[in-house]
Write a structure and sequence with these properties.
- This protein has 308 residues and is mostly helical.
- It has a single domain (54-307), classed as Orthogonal Bundle (Farnesyl Diphosphate Synthase).
- 73% of the residues lie in helices and 0% in strands.
- The chain is built from 15 helices and no strands.
- Helix 2 packs across helix 6, helix 4 (58-79) packs parallel to helix 7 and helix 8 (147-169) crosses helix 9.
- The chain is globular and about 55 Å long.
- The N and C termini lie far apart (71 Å).
Amino acid sequence: MHQSTRLIDRFVRQSDRLTDTLRRSGYIIRPMSPDQYCEQKAVPAGSTLYYSVLFLPQPQRRAVIALYALCRELQDAVDQASDPGVARAKVLWWRNELQATFAGNPQHPVMHALAPVIRDHGFPVQRLTEIVEGAQLDLDYNRYPDFATVEVYCYRVAGVACMLTAQILGVTQPATLEFARALGTALALTEMIRDVGAHARRNRIYVPLDELSRFGVTVDDIIALREDERFEHLMAFQIERAHSYFERAAALLPREERKAQRANLVMAALQRTLLREIAKLRGRTMHQRVALTPLRKLWLAWRTWVAA
């Protein structure tokens, strides 16, 4: 009996050592909680969102990250599926998952993390459904005829998220939601300007077609990644409009709400600085990706947080 006990103890020790070795080698992955999954999905270190939520209290931070993880999942559903039919099926799945979450039966880790946020902040299903509709627009359009159509897209893919983030952070006046909506449009426009080349490589053009025509730029020019003087004038117009939305957002936010909305203000500061860097290049982002360094992002985030 004593010998059997020793053998069992030795087996346990050997098993523990093997488990540790496998874990260190990456062969054993600890199961993630829904919050950890959302963090990995939506907040890679050094990202704009990472610095925007860096100084938030943990409950608010988790809530905002869960919201943006949903946005990321929907964008990936569209971008990572080579078959349009598969992409449509994925977006439909998320539409059904949203309904299941409101019925109290979430399945996906993101929705498990988001369910208490929805409950605590009273998010309506219609508002979250608009985020799904943004992904649907990417399936329905790869060209946008005019800015009115682009503006709807910006609202759904970014404006709604900014408005819901504003609610998480704390809203006492309706003007704050209008601030968040304008900010969302500014953020979406900035990303479109930065990624015009990346989008063209996927046969997508978010610059309105009527504005291409106004500046003498063709769809073929964009798809061929041509950056000439006509393109520079076109992008200068896009950059100026994005700046105007940042200005509109800043004017709409009541001063007494600035402290609560610091995470949104950090997002605005980072992306508007990025927009200025793109302007220095005369909008030539087709063959290079413009980004702020992590140190500069940290400094801007801290300075904006303290000044609010």
